[in-house]
Automatic annotation (TrEMBL):
Signal peptide: none
Annotated family: Belongs to the GPN-loop GTPase family.
Family matches, as InterPro entries: Gliding_Motility_GTPase, Gpn, P-loop_NTPase
Top-rank taxon, per record: Bacteria
Protein name, as recorded: ATP/GTP-binding protein
Record's keyword terms, sorted: GTP-binding, Hydrolase, Nucleotide-binding
One Pfam family from the record: ATP_bind_1
Keyword Cell wall biogenesis/degradation: no
Amino acid sequence: MDSATSDRATLSSTADNGLKIVVVGGFGVGKTTMVRSVSEIRPLNTEETMTRAGEAVDDLDGVHAKTSTTVAFDFGRITLDERSVLYLFGAPGQERFWFLWDRLFSGTLGAVVLVDTRRLADSWYAIDRLEHHGTPFIVACNDFGGPLHSEQQIREALDLSEDVPLVECDARDRSSSKYVLITLVEHLAALSAARLQAAGTTASAAAAPTAALAAAGPTPEPAP
């Protein structure tokens, strides 16, 4: 499933402010799909066909139809304005690739933890590593048509504090994925404002990236 290239693919020569967000989560929760759905360029991905050799190490419970997997990372881009560009990195979900995560977290503003509510335990490691690094994050529940859970049930299952935003999404849908990114940026702005207030400094919340994400023009839908 490749994403078509939009006519905004050329990066402006004035772009000099790169912002980084990482999408993490368990195996098969939709990280590659989310990056593809919002990227304005044809995403770089490292998808490889799954083979019998991986049966002993990759747990396919709940994702039996999955035929390919990310073996390094996914990469996408969203131009916010003439100077600022948002870079999206999707981390591989299998335990054997977790050693890559610490490097991917380097320099990131924040992260989206994408979860499949049918397999909540698969997201524990992602949350643990983000908390270890002190990286701000939100949690997005990708819709796989599983049983419904209340917000409180999900928070308890993930041991998620009340100050971490929890949203629902469909990673296949660009508008839904944009909403997830906007929620993360708003969360980061609120954290920044709280730190400034605690330090006795007044400053307006960083609304520009949020507005730019919301105003980003439509891109072609990924081919099925």
